[in-house]
Amino acid sequence: MDIRIRNALLVGCAALAATAVAHAQTADPIADLLGEPKLPAAPQPYAPARQTVARPLSVNDQALFAQGIAAAKRGDVSGAKSAISGLSDPVARKVVTWAMVDVSSNLLGFYDLDAARRDLDGFPRGLRRQIAAEKVLETAGKTPAQIIEWFAGQEPQSAPGAMALASAYRGLGRQAEASDLIRRWWRDKSFEADVQRTMLTRFADLLTVDDHVRRADVLLYGAQGPAARDVVALLPADKQAAALARISLRGNVETSFYALSPEDQASPGVAFERASFLRRRGQDAAAAAALSAAATDAVTPDAADRVWDERYRMTLASIRSGDWRSAYRAAANTGLNSGADATEAEFYAGWIALKQLNDPVAAGRHFAAIERIGSSPITRARAFYWQGRAAEARGDRTAAENFYSRGAEHGTAFYGQLSAEKLGLRLVLPADPVPTDAERAQFEGRDVVQAMRLLADQNQRDLFRVFALHIDDIVPSRVEAALLIDAIRGYGDQDTSMKAARGAAQRGLILADRAYPYRTPPQVAGAPEPALVLGITRQESGFDPAVRSGADARGMMQLLPSTASGVARRMGVSYSAAMLYEPDYNMRLGSSFLGSLVNQFSGSYIMAAAGYNAGPGRPPQWTAMCGDPRAGGQDPLDFIECIPFSETRNYVMRVMENMQVYRAKANGGSAPITLSSDLRRGGYNYAPAASSVASNP
After folding, report:
1. Which of 46, 69, 281, 404 is spaced 20 to 30 A from 595 at the CA atom?
2. Are 207 and 200 in contact (CB under 8 A)?
3. Catalytic residue at 540?
4. pTM of the entire structure?
């Protein structure tokens, strides 16, 4: 291996390997990563470490805590306050206060809400408490100076808060600051029509016609409800006509569009609604042409999201018709700068530029934008891998290896695994941390953790989950993430523990043991390899046997009763709907069903996974648009990334990355990465491959 790559990996592996070295005996993690032999050990199911219980409440406090939570939940402020006054445990008092404010903020005065805002700092839903206090701030009898001091230089989080602060500025003669604040909120924020009317009544003298034009533009990208219509009435005649045409087009009436001047017809907001109207009528080519005139620098993030929704539909329509240049134009220059929509837009633009337009330079720019936007390991690995592919297409192997080495830092992510495979690396799972007594005491000493435990002990499962997932958002380290997952599992909540594990992973806190539960699948004739079964199970249920979906899918592998009964009949076993919640029974049927899908798709794991998620009839439909991943010369990544359902696209990648992890777990924590060959499994091509650049993943 090139010494530059090895040196890069020494840096790249630090985030994962350092903690493993600190908590587990590992002679040379880099040697492991580079493929030194390692004796496999039989995988063991993960078991939580010793459970720490919440400090016990007195008998009196237990009764008052239960009474207080019950009162808070039913909106009984008086009953909740009575319980709070009698509680001696400070954390119990905080929890009941939190529940009361969370449900009944509209029944509380400013000083109660302000005290909760300060005293419950670090508890869930802090923004909700801030907004509740802002809404009644002007009823508190505070002077203008006191109101300004209360905000402490922070931006208001609500329109009532903005009005309170602006009024305080005016009260002290700070007219410019009042004007700047009100105009900023009027131009860029959405809020209820009655609040909008109040702001207009109180601060009309600070607003200009241009401010009204801007606000109308913002609101007309949204729901076009009463607030939007009220502002349209404030516009000059020519602007009002364009605004009303946008409303009419949304209602599938185009008459008023033709009454506009050519300049107004081509204005971004009108062009956007016209494109959407044409697309709904099936006129995709005309819609794409109209969309090219729509704003690429939409006025607000919300408007940009709305524009992307339409551009995304146009992108898919153009892909289906094979019009790749139109697809690229729809995906590029969306005006999005952050969030999942921005990464999807940049990816589609980059993928089309690289694979269909033979423009690796433009592709590299789009993939680099994903790197700037994204923070999660999954997103960053995707950005680095595809930057590597673009560099390869430019003939810059050195740059490609650098991108792949950076992608390989994220070894549990799909594209991180493909990056590592490009460099000939093995997957080596970092050991989970073993918390010290001091680390455990620090975690347990947090009020929010004690609150979570009190709620669990009182069987307040809904509130327990709110606190658990809030803690997951704020834990600062792998050690505390591990302790949180142990605590949640100690209360028997597998579903929430897996949500916490996934949330931690999204922040780069990888816990390969806790986040990938292991259960040996039952042996079933025709079942695929255990790693695929486990990969599917992790995505379907997170190994919670009691899960039941809204669609009535049940148990470990989320089987519909109709599907399960058919599988049981074919297997020659008795069927019981109640038994679908029994792990082994469910996994027997699920493994058999999954095996039948693998067989149906001629051995293709990715088509079987897509069929398991979206239904077996979908993958054959997608091959016409996306190419057949089993075809010689076809890049299977094109099929995956072309799947029009984002849920299924994500599902397939997560299943395939899970499979690599489970192979490593079954082999003592390390295994060769064979993801690219796994993507190519299957050999029967029953549909013509869509045009695409042939390249190895």
Report:
1. 46
2. yes
3. yes
4. 0.87
